[in-house]
Amino acid sequence: MSFFATLSEKPWLATDTAQPQPAMNAISLLNNQKRIALKFFLAVVTVIFSLFIITFLERSQFPDFQALAGQPWQPLSDPWRLWLNTGVLVAASVAMQLALYYARTGRKRAVLAATGVALTLTVQFIVAQLWVWSLLNDLGYYLASNPANSYFYLFTAVHGAHLIGGLLVLAWVFIRVSRKSLSDTQQSWARVSGNLSLCANYWHYLLGIWLVLFALLTSSAETYQLLAALCGF
Amino acid sequence: MTHTAIAEQIDESHHPSSFITRYIWSQDHKVIAVQYAITAIFVGLVALVLSGLMRLQLGFPDSFDFIDPASYLQFVTMHGMIMVIYLLTALLLGGFGNYLIPLMIGARDMVFPYLNMLSFWMYLLSVLVLMSSFFISGGPTGAGWTLYPPQAILAGTPGYNGGIILMLVSLAIFIVAFTMGGLNYVTTILQARTHGMTLMRMPLSIWGIFVATILGLLAFPALLVSAIMMLLDKLAGTSFFMPAIVSLGESLDYNGGSPVLFQHLFWFFGHPEVYIVALPAFGMVSDVLSVHARKNIFGYRMMVWAIVAIGGLSFIVWAHHMYVSGMNPVFGFFFATTTLIIAIPTAIKVYNWVLTLWRGNIRLTTPMLFAIGFIFTFTHGGLTGLFLGNVVIDLPLSDTYFVVAHFHMVMGVSPIMVLFAAIYHWFPLVSGKMLHTGLGKTHFWITFLGTYAIYLPMHYLGFLGVPRRYYSMAGTDFIPESAQTLNAGITVSAIIVGVAQLLFIINVIISLRSDKKAAHNPWEASSLEWQTPQIPPVHGNWGAKLPVVHRWAYDYCVPGAVDDFTPQNVPVDAAHLSEGEAEGDRS
Fold first, then answer.
1. How far apart are CA B242 and CA B151, in angstroms?
2. Which of A130, A54, A86, A51 is CA-nearest to residue A218?
3. Residue B435: helix, strand or coil by DSSP?
4. Using CB atoms, which residue from A12, A37, A63 is nearest to B183?
5. Which of B491, B543, B561, B513 has the alpha carbon at shortest distance from B54?
6. How many domains does chain B have?
7. What is the pLDDT of residues B139-183, one digit of tens each?
8. ipTM of this model?
9. Which residue of B has its CA nearest to A144?
10. Which residue from A138, A165, A174, B146 has the least number of CB within 10 angstroms?
11. What chain B residue is nearest to A32 in terms of C-alpha separation?
């Protein structure tokens, strides 16, 4: 039913509502509810990152802002380390999707392996981001020495914090899967694959956000100027 | 982990067994609602005392040694922040949202009860962090509730070291708590409605809470973002908001940041926040008016559309709080126009409340008095909002008592009126006891007339140019002596109104201690929350079978109906007299 059709209903007309139908599958209902909650949560996450990005674009137009990329001597002009990290995060997303696929076919060992790989790769991504932090720090690009640096640390930290939140949930799912017996019913796998599908969506979404941040952080001052002009700054 | 409060499911939920799981670590939405409400009312009383202290200083300057300029600013800041966020938002959504959503839509509980419990404990943590700032050296922040940088984190502002940090951390925790609760509210409303409860059959309270929660989910991130960036400016020395600045003769390490950027972020949250508070209040007052006027709410669909429209518009008006910060005149025109456009759906709501009363069978109960009082205070507050929405009028009036009077009428007194209406209305449901009518009406009249005695004169002070947030007006030639007399009068009224709130507390205590039980549905309401098998509802709310809904929540005095109200779960056939009976009735 469309939104406008809902809003134009005539609520003052009483009708006899049919008696409830036999119970709908409780697990698929629960999965449905969690999916809706995740959608709203991702909306919240989107707003958070959008606002950060908007402030970034405005701040980038101030004279003291020195972009981290664009000229050969700037540290993110050849961001091969970040490309490497991106590859790790892409692999984690693929592993999540595989885990979901195996869960739908009820293969416990494969689910555990794929989830384990996803967990490991994601932790590796976070560690590798910290590695980039320490390199930048060694080069003298400190958190407070330039707003461009501040934003680099801020964006990667906030993105990492979201990944850590996801890791906690995924670890919980991993433990639950590891406790399942091999002879479990289709029904109980439905619940696991529901949870895994939420995790996979969350991973893909955070990957998408990372790609946006990656593109933004490694752009040149001219690109910022163009984007800021489009936003009216 | 969680149980599902879905329409078809039989009641197999986590029944609490011990005192601790029942009342402390409870996952029952009703207990969590009461926990939220008690915490919110407690901090609200703290903020009320703070406002009393401010008024003492303003009314009788130099008479109280313990109020110095620094502590005055701290009182202002903490009063504002506590009232707006920790009292109103928490009580309306955490308290009433939690209590009413499952009961009004016919669910057994929220869909994620565990998350709901976490939400309350995070909220309590945020309150404790905020309160702890009273006990650290330097005290709480005195930056004003808007926390504008650069002054919020620089020497010279009270609490610039510990206080502001605790404030920002507390806000961040509150936002996490709100997000947990908010995800629950929207998912429950969308997914756990009982059979026959279509979206357009929901009581307006639920519509208000629903849209307000969505606003909160989308607006609070702006506050979170600004809190994180300001914390970095304060703790790590970044320059997101901090410009190059000389403080106490010393040039600081900050460079190039934009304080106005913070203002944009803050008000991108701050303006929707007004409607996060107002929309649930709009909804609840609609239900109270309809029940006690024994008439269906006038223009239900228009009321829903107005709630949705106000929610959408509230995101494109924020910069009307920043006219004096300076902006492109085109933007000023844009924000003034959108601000005035919001008046249209809002006015529709006011007209519909009045038209609901028109030729109704009004019962002047205590909740009804508060609800009608709300129509007055909200109209007054709203009309001054039309003044301030215009750039040319806002500029001279900005930062005067006119603004203070405006937002206290529209956002302080009005939601409080609705909260009292709602508490008096739903108290029998929550506790099974009635609040005393005589005490309640006394409470109403003192509060209603008293708030006018406080805020009406403030408009005149504003016209005189009396600036807000000033500790003392001494030495300001343009302010006449008479303004001080007015200020003293306002203070006396404020103290009377503040003390009168004790009547309410006493009323609650007396009622809870009395043995007299409330009737099952004392106001003869037709909405679903009064149709539970037990009053107060027990865990699981509905006994063995969930209710089935056949109508909207406003069938009062329907021609040909058996009673003057028809509960939502009464089938169509049972609600109407047969032809013969109806004939006999008429003859």
1. 9
2. A86
3. coil
4. A37
5. B491
6. 2
7. 999 999 999 999 999 998 999 999 999 999 999 999 999 999 999
8. 0.94
9. B238
10. A138
11. B191
